Amino acid sequence: MSCVVQKFGGTSVATLERINHVAEIVAKNKQNKNIVAVVSAMAGVTNKFIEYAHSLNGYEGNPEYDFIISSGEMVTAGLLSVALNNMGIKARSYAGWQVPINTSSNYGSADIESIGIQNIISDLNNGIVPIICGFQGIDKKNRITTLGRGGSDLTAVAIADAIKAEICDIYSDVDGVYTVDPNLYFKAKRLDKVYYNEMLEMAALGAKVLQEQSVAYALKKQIKIRVASSFVENGGTIISNEIPTRKFCGIAITHNLVQLKVFYNNESLDIDSLLRKHFIRIDIIKVVPYKISFFLDRKKLNIVKEILLKIDNVINIKQEMIHRHCSRLSLIGFDLKQKDFEYVLSLMSSNNIEIFCCSKGKYGINLVLLTEFLFKAIDILHRNCGL
Ligand code: ASP
Ligand code: MG
Asked: How far does the centroid of ligand 2 lie from the alpha carbon of residue 262, in Å?
């Protein structure tokens, strides 16, 4: 029988009523498929635990911090198991270490190194639904680790890879990936299919549907993901390696921008690649010998400074304020060419939208413009770029 991993995010398991509803979804899907469930903590719980830890000076990097903040997932896994048992479906809960999900010792944002699948397989063979705590693992020092915020997505994708599941369903309160945040633009459309690299771009730019690391993992291991809602039933969005027939897929907006100029003394220092390893995406990059300037989401400023200051070859970092009335619009699409870039720029100029800075990558075009023109730009792009 084919096997599917189904992950339920915090809002999908926020109350006992929601957990019972999730149990119904699992029960229904179990009729013709083997199901492995992965769960997040109930909405708000992890934030609460982080607050507790911080108020006693427990921070990321300390294994006790991981121990504290990983505990919300245990409650959900146990409750879902009980709810399924109540419906006459055999289920059992697993903490990360019981699976086991083996990780590095990078507390607070550990990497998955390997997954033991014997327990899961034997449960499936016995008609039992394994319910796995997302977000947590165990390191070689026998300490509990966590995989970074939103890490249950990564757990689900990694389990799907380990057991060769046919698809990894990620359930949340949104019913898929949209061309733009529907709260910004009511004509936003739900996408049926998104290519891995496009989704990676969106996740990096702050689309909250999927954790960025999980998309990178799915791309690397070619795991098909379906983003769906546990609240309404419809097809959702499939993220896969299927080459899209359309050019553009969506728009991401960043309101709070900073520009950093970094001066260094080693020509071969590649700051872009280095930051990408930390899942930090920079753009509108200008490099001249011994200096790079780039744009960055202000939320990432402190972490980027922290990373850069640890590099011996970095001499100085200068921060430039971006006009507070400016935003960055990133138009995401597949295999974007110079002519696509030029087309987008011509659309902006023919509609009298001034672009202050811009850049093009293979999967994204970035434009910095006055925030007051954002809505107009989003509308023009929807009407002219097949969104
Ligand atoms: N509960 C964790 C968090 O809030 C992990 C997750 O929900 O994916 O970040
Ligand atoms: Mg999430």
From this structure: 33
Q: What is the DSSP letter of 372?
A: G
Dist. CA 28–CA 34, nearest whole Å? 11
Residues 6+ apart with CB under 8 A from 169: 4, 5, 6, 7, 225, 226, 228, 236
Element spanning 98, H or E: none
Mean pLDDT by 10 residues, the chain (387 residues): 94 98 96 96 98 94 97 98 98 98 96 98 97 98 97 98 97 93 93 97 88 96 96 90 96 90 92 89 89 90 92 90 85 97 98 94 95 96 97
Which numbered atom of ligand 1 lies nearest the CA of 147?
A: 5
| Cβ 325 vs Cβ 370: under 8 Å | yes
pTM assigned to the model: 0.93
Q: Show the domains of the chain with their CATH numbers.
A: 3-173 (3.40.1160.10), 257-320 (3.30.70.260)
Report the nearest-CA residue for atom 8 of ligand 1. 150
**Token pair for 155:** 């757990």
Within its chain, how far is the Cα of 160 from the centroid? 16
